[in-house]
């Protein structure tokens, strides 16, 4: 009987203490209760890129009924275009677009985290001006969606940060 009681005790001890699951967003869900002020800056005037990035980040970082706060996400965005497919007569048939984004997340006490993300995409250039415009806009939107997801994930998963966040 003693052996049976010991086995049950050991089993319960191991079973109750063996759960190592820690949710990734547990600490940062509280941050989503506060409104994060998103500021996007670019060197060249590109109001559509700025608005798209703000809207995508707002979808990911703002919740309904969020409280006002001093949380700030500042984004410095640079965009560059380059030719990929060259023909024998040196005309380009495929273009690429590359975004480089530096971001910094601030609370009431100062800098919380900062980082850099970079993505690129390509699109075909044909004879139709309208098709070229649509292809370029689609490539831009797709890259900005991926970048917004990365920035939101990097901002909300502050596992290695040592201090508390003060909204």
Q: What this model shows, in words?
A:
With 167 residues, the chain is of the alpha+beta class. It has a single domain, classed as Lipoprotein like domain (Double Stranded RNA Binding Domain). 35% of the residues lie in helices and 31% in strands. The protein contains 3 helices and 4 strands. The protein has helices spanning 2-17, 47-61, 129-156; strands at 37-42, 72-86, 92-107, 110-124. It has a 4-stranded mixed beta sheet. A hairpin with a 2-residue loop joins strand 3 and strand 4 (110-124). Helix 2 (47-61) runs parallel beside helix 3. The longest helix has 28 residues, at 129-156. It is elongated.
Topology:
Blueprint: H1 2-17, E1 37-42, H2 47-61, E2 72-86, E3 92-107, E4 110-124, H3 129-156
Parallel strand pairs: 1-2
Antiparallel strand pairs: 2-3, 3-4
Helix pairs in contact: 2-3
**Structural class designation:** alpha+beta
Average pLDDT value? 82
Give the name of the CATH superfamily: Lipoprotein like domain
Second-tier CATH architecture: 2-Layer Sandwich
Strand content: 25-35%
Return Rg in Å. Answer: 24 Å
| Biggest sheet character | 4 strands, mixed
End-to-end separation = 57 Å
Total helical elements:
3
Low-confidence stretches: none
- Strand sequence of the main sheet, in spatial order? 1-2-3-4
Helical coverage, percent range: 25-40%
């Amino acid at each position: 009987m003693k052996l049976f009681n010991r086995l049950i005790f050991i089993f319960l001890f191991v079973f109750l203490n063996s759960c190592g699951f820690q949710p990734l967003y547990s600490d940062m869900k509280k941050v989503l209760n506060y409104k994060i002020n998103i500021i996007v800056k670019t060197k060249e005037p590109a109001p559509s890129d700025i608005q798209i990035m703000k809207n995508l980040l707002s979808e990911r970082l703002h919740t309904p009924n969020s409280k006002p706060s001093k949380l700030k996400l500042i984004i410095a965005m640079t965009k560059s275009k380059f030719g990929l497919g060259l023909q024998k007569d040196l005309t380009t048939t495929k273009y690429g677009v590359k975004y480089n984004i530096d971001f910094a997340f601030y609370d009431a006490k100062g800098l919380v985290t900062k980082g850099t993300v970079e993505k690129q995409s390509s699109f075909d250039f044909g004879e139709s001006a309208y098709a070229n415009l649509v292809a370029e806009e689609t490539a831009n939107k797709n890259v900005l969606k991926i970048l917004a997801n990365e920035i939101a994930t990097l901002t909300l998963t502050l596992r290695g940060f040592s201090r508390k966040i003060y909204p």
